[in-house]
Amino acid sequence: MKKALITGITGQDGAYLAKLLLEKNYEVYGTFRRLSTPNFWRLNSLDIFSKIHLIPADLLDMSSMLEALTISKPDEVYNLAAQSFVSTAFEQPVGNAEITGLAVTKILESIRHVNPKIKFYQASSSEMYGNTKSIKQNENTSFAPSSPYAASKLYAHEMTNIYRKAYGMFAVAGILFNHESPLRGIEFVSRKITNGVAAISLGIKKSLTLGNLKTKRDWGFAPEYMEVVHKIMQEKNPQNFVIATGETHTVEEFVKETFELAGLNWKKYVKIDKRFFRPLEVNYLRGDYTKARKKLNWKPKTKFKKLVKLMYEEDLKRWKMFVDRKAFAWDAPLYPDESKIITRYTKK
């Protein structure tokens, strides 16, 4: 039986990957941060919480990563942990650099010392491309990060490449474009939209406040992306892959599609607040997954409209359960009103 260690197992990708690996008969370990309010709702919602082994760890503390490797003795390590909300990276650039960037070097160095034969996967991001001039971005497209998050991800990406080349380690990166699901955090615009529209449709909320509606993104379905992440780790020769749908849609299209599902006119409910614009915006991202299609025999199955529909319907179902006072694993009732969060970028 193979063993896998997943950092960030409580997040969207970590939960879906854990479920996939369990189905493939892996013994799954996951690191998590000790908090006064544990964040295990995703693992519970997928009914896998009792099937995995949880190890408390701090990515900034190399000794805790060494401990996690010693406890789990993994064949594969998947680093999915990061401070992944881009806007927060502008508010906390130093912390983001440490968690999203420097911590990856600590993990790689820990693996090199404990057992350099352990396979390592780094979750890289399409944000690394920034405002590239390329119509489509692939493995050879130049990077031009436009946020502290993207810069930190690029550092981690290049360190992964360095450890592969310098030490002969199986260290690879998947450059994943936006991938969404009902388990996405509400701070991300996709869930903010589907969750907000579901609440509006039931009369629970009266409006939805957003930022830039004109940005274009390549949106895919997270569980499918975790399938290809596993495929990348099973390759004979370690190499990086872009994972995307090859399609691009604006935030406004996402909004329109969701409100249409609710039978509502989006213009009556959506408000624009400059506070939710990034200090430096990435206007357009569109991935080219040709290499993954040819070498991994993979292609996306869930297209844009289907993705929006399944996310909206799940959020609507959750809000109905909330109204009926039924217990279930969910984050929405605990998420704070963003207007109450104050940072140096929230001044109007």
Would you write up a description of this structure?
40% of the residues lie in helices and 14% in strands. By secondary structure, the chain is α/β, with parallel strands linked by helices. It has 2 domains: 3-179 and 219-243, NAD(P)-binding Rossmann-like Domain (Rossmann fold, 3-Layer(aba) Sandwich), CATH 3.40.50.720; 186-217 and 249-284 and 303-340, UDP-galactose 4-epimerase, domain 1, CATH 3.90.25. The strands form 4 sheets. The chain has a 7-stranded parallel β-sheet, with helices on both faces. The protein has a two-stranded parallel sheet with strand order 7-10. Strands 8-13 form a two-stranded parallel ribbon. Strand 2 (27-32), helix 2 (41-45) and strand 3 (53-56) form a beta-alpha-beta unit. The N and C termini lie far apart (55 Å).
